[in-house]
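Hey forum,

I'm writing up a methods section and want to include a predicted complex as supplementary material. The small molecule is pyridoxal-5'-phosphate. I've pasted the protein sequence and the SMILES. Can someone with a working setup run it? I'll credit the forum in the acknowledgements.
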Amino acid sequence: MTAAIDSPLEVNQRLSDTLGVELFIKRDDLLPFPFAGNKVRKLAAELDGHTVAGDLVVSTGAIDSNHCRTLAMLGAERGLHVHLVLHGEGAQQAPALVMLDQLGASYEVVPVAGISHAIAAAASRGGNRGLNVHVVAGGCHTPLGAQAYRDAAHRTLPEARPDYVFLASGTGATHGGIAAAVQLSALDTEVVGISVAREHERGVAAVAEAATWAGARAPHVSFLDDYVDGGYGRWGHTTREAVELGWRFGIPLDPTYTGKAFAGMLDHIEKGLVRPGSRVLFWHTGGLWNAVAAISRAAVKGGSV
Ligand SMILES: *Cc1c(COP(=O)(O)O)cnc(C)c1O
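Reply by user p_vandermeer:
Happy to help. Structure tokens for the complex are below, copy them as they are.
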């Protein structure tokens, strides 16, 4: 069991003055290598809770996913065998695969329809070799992942005492964990998850499930799909503007995750849905590799992300 990892909580005074709120930033982008943000917190808890050195861990995600590179990294650290069932393609495919090789993970790339079969086959091959096998849900959408975020929120919320928390919400464990901490501490904080892909109904169900894993009862879930801006891994003008603004104030944002959450937060402040002078916590979930990918693409094409 490793000690609980944590990240800095910062006040961005210059942007607070510009926006007319007190803006706190929880810097989960600064969680340890591979700088993959919230996946480091979730997967460290998951692996420490369910595995020991020598076990086989099987999971799935897109080739360039933060989940997969983090699992390969933390698995190497802990002496686990890691097998990844990958899908998708893209410009970042080759570097992502080289990194997985360097970390000693094995992987296969399959069509989306073949994922569950490939996971079951890899698990059964491991079992036949006499290994203990642990299958981790994509994105580490697991009880221990959600509980890790509940615990992090229990440490962070009393310090920031936010009226609002904004964060990027994907598979829902991060959002659910934070929402559970708010309910369990009977805080008056509104946790607003900005969808990076899912439409409202599916997103709410996944976040509520995760909040329940973390101990909440009938959780209230605020999950907004208004800032998806073209779908997962795509973005348009609104996201691009938010990313640019963040960087100008020293907050490294990416257009796949944190840029969308930031756009949602800015829109709420602009429209007065967040009262002026409020304490606002932007929970920065990471996305450095996504930002680097977008910057590399922009450098080739010319222009901005
Ligand atoms: C995976 C990810 C998210 C979404 O987290 P979930 O717990 O799946 O909702 C947000 N931001 C970044 C940078 C991520 O990699």
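Some notes you might quote in the supplement: The radius of gyration is 19 Å. Residues 37-39, 66, 139, 168-175, 257, 285-287 surround pyridoxal-5'-phosphate (CB under 6 Å).
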